[in-house]
Amino acid sequence: MSTAYKTIRDIAGPLLVVEGVEGVAYDELCSVELSSGEQRLGKVLESRKGLAVVQLFESTQGITTDGTKVRFLGRSFELPVSKDMLGRMFSGSGTPIDGGPAIVPDRKLDINGAPINPFTRDFPEDFIQTGISTIDVLNTLVRGQKLPIFSGAGLPHASLAAQIARQARVLTKEEVERGSEPDSNGSTSNPQSQVPNPQEGKFAVVFGAMGITFEEAQYFKKEFERTGALSRAVLFLNTADNPVVERIATPRLALTAAEYLAFELDYHVTVILTDMTNYCEALREVSAARKEVPGRRGYPGYLYTDLATLYERAGRIRGKKGSITQIPILTMPEDDVTHPIPDLTGYITEGQIRLDRGLFQRGMIPPVIPMGSLSRLKGKAQGEGITREDHSGMDAQLTSAYARGTEIRELAVILGESSLNDTDRAYLKFADRFEREFIAQGERENRSIFDSLAIGWNLLAELPRSELKRVKPAYIEKYLPTSA
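Predicted structure:
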């Protein structure tokens, strides 16, 4: 049996300082036994000769320096994993909270994972359909990509996260072929409801929520259960009343489950992490308790490195059929994109999807703004055989036309709409329709990529053909509605 130490020197926030220890390693788990007999779990944050700093996964309330024992367990934090995790809900510490039994594990995995060898990484490719037009057409999500969502306080990022979790899927070759044939009006049928997807059973969602409110946790539970999406999902829910240290473990638990499903069971896994701002606040709190020298805005100097250990666990590995696609969601304090959290996230990830407060105030749900949003890898998931041949040109044309339309709208406020020529009025009308029909779709509407492209062509019919300079003439003849 391991040695029980009664030499706690200090208690600071979620941390215990234990003296006189031997053979203790960084990240090692420990059991803290109170004088009442209650057991609490912790891990070693810092270890040097004769001293260990222990971070508790629960509150330090009731712990005293006298009568409390610390026993080091000789192992790191491990998550029991099995295919039976699908359809289950867990706390931020990996304990089942859905009333079901504990998982009978096939394996137990270290939640810190192992770095993916860059040589074995495969380039992200293939299209993931989210059912949201502004993402699928303009900021295409690629299998194996890490694409964050930048939101703000009060914006509907929670409902957007739930919508993506419900609707995200991989298209089959048959669906792509069927959706590429336009009908007489230039639109396409929705193959999603007509062709079964044999890959559906190999597509999974891992959802990790950190520091959310009780109401948000209930919302996510009900959404997954109501829509039947829970059967292909694994949920880790850490609420605001849970210990702050648990918030640091939650994304690692989610990513460990995703790695097992992707690289052991060959699933295409989409990992959604919300809210990364709460995670970073937890890091700052623990850093302050350790009396570390603060960096920008009080966050620890290693914030970039810590975030990279999470974000870089997305990707594809050569020789493995599965993949991990990561969508971290963060709220920008005061809508400031230069804040350390979105700033560092942008350096590590491959673009961002930006939610706009102005669009939200005008009733646009989801309020994804084309300008300021970018998927750097979208070119790998657009085009013939993947989505449709006109996808890339449609992306560029819609974004360009909407940008010009918003500029003309601002100009009309100053000079009056009567000062605009016919082409300017066409762009103004396009921008208004684009917001109402393309951006705004509600959280219950699931559009196929082909439906979204058809909407885009109907909107482009507002503009003179001479203005359609970013799509090939052959595609205009093929897809533009005949009435245009």
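Summary: The mean pLDDT is 89.
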